[in-house]
Amino acid sequence: MALEKLQVLHALDVADTQRYHVRAVVIAGMGFFADAYDLFCITLVTKLLGRIYYHVPGREEPGRLPPRLEAAINGVTFCGMIVGQLLFGWLGDKVGRKKFYGKTIMLMIMGSFLSGLSFGNSADGVMATLCFFRFWLGVGIGGDYPLSATIMSEYANKRTRGSFVAAVFAMEGFGVLAGCIVTLVVSATFQARLGAPAYEEDPAASTPPQADYAWRIILMVGAIPACFTYHWRMRMPETARYTALVARDADKAARDMSRVLQVDITGEPDKVESITRDRGDYGVFSRRFARRHGAHLAGAVACWFVLDVVFYSQNILQEGIFSDVNWVPRARTMSALEETYRVGRAHAIIALCGTLPGYWFTIAFVDVVGRKAIQFLGFAMMMGFMLLIAAFYDSLISPGRRIWLVLMYTFTFFFANFGPNSTTFILPAEIFPAHLRTTCHGISAAAGKVGAIVGTFGFMYAAQKADGSEAAETGYPSGIGVRASLFVLAASNALGILFTCFLPEPKGRSLEEVCGEGAEPTIRDDTDVGDSKILPL
């Protein structure tokens, strides 16, 4: 029998797109703008850090970060994100989504600012301090994932919910682009003022002392958008779904949403009590959750893990492509600041041509064709392009054909973002019950960052030539080569297609309908729910 829905939840589901929807997208989206800036800007300055702190006099090539240190600087942020996703995901269900929404931004502000103030008596000391501050930056960024996704999904109407959550995540693309623009402006300004020569002309003068300020400014700018977001986050009311279905305060939920929607809504405390009583308070590790949502969680975790393995491993082609098409020439032919400028410009081109369009295609079509269709398409197209690049790799890197490598590489990014990079963020915020929603999103996101560690560092080593010929230049041991690595990544995409089948399609359905909220059996004993009947409330 169909269950009568809470008036406050029904009002949210059928509401037309209003100013509060746009405000919620901007507030949550600006957090993701800052997240992406802080997370990706370190990639733009790692070469500069190597030149400043690890220059060896007399060497033909400029200094570069030792492989283990480069891995640590990037990996420590991912580790912090895993902690933040699990911790704030759990807290979001225990004490509320809004309660810690401002705390994650504060961690990001402090992490960004203090990263730029990294200090030490030696190069290793500066890098250790940088790693410490970037770990806490990662905790704040990680906490933003489950909270922002859940808040937006619980505020949105069911008709355009996917587009709203996708719009929040799409701000990541603008954050990446902003990082590139800031890097271009800072490096170009310093280079114009200092006029540093190329390394091969004067190794010492090619990295002027003032270059140490450039990377610090680039990192510290990430605190600015986060500062603007803090005030508005603190003014947001708690979501009605948490207040009614988890905190069980029906009257407060009705008051908050009456003010937001500007309509009169009745609290219905008796109905809330009935729904929450019949639902029970089962946890993620209960047999009841395993029966109802275990496959969904397994699918969300596996898809996000596979996606991030593939997504973050694409840097194995990046340096070679940038060099082959002369976007980033040999390091010794440039000064440190010119190299930073060219790296920022190359990343900006990829962001404009592949990253940003993919996000906005998702916004346009996610509520038209559905989340699963886009996820299937993205994994399939990434697999196809990676197989093509791997099959014709030797031909594609030859002069005259490199443009095809660039095009296929760009389309791989496009279908990552018009595909699982967006939908793995959206789906966990829709398919789990309200009292476990941020927890499950945090678990899924944390699995993704484990995949990011595997993709970034595992394939960084795996992509080295098997004959060890690159070891002297890069410092990495021999691996299986780029071509074989691409075949492995293509197979990983096939796993993503398989695990997508585990997920339900939430398009056009209320959150309660998708996850069965309020439609639980009246018998709450975990050992005997399989044969019980669903009764009207």
TrEMBL record:
Gene3D superfamilies: MFS general substrate transporter like domains (1.20.1250.20). The chain crosses the membrane at residues 25-49, 69-88, 100-119, 125-143, 164-193, 213-232, 295-313, 346-369, 376-397, 403-427, 439-462, 482-503. It is a multi-pass membrane protein. It is found in: Membrane. Residues 24-508 form the Major facilitator superfamily (MFS) profile domain. Keywords: Membrane, Phosphate transport, Symport, Transmembrane, Transmembrane helix, Transport. GO terms for biological process: phosphate ion transport. It comes from the Eukaryota. One of its GO terms (molecular function) is symporter activity. Belongs to the major facilitator superfamily. Phosphate:H(+) symporter (TC 2.A.1.9) family. This is H(+)/Pi cotransporter.
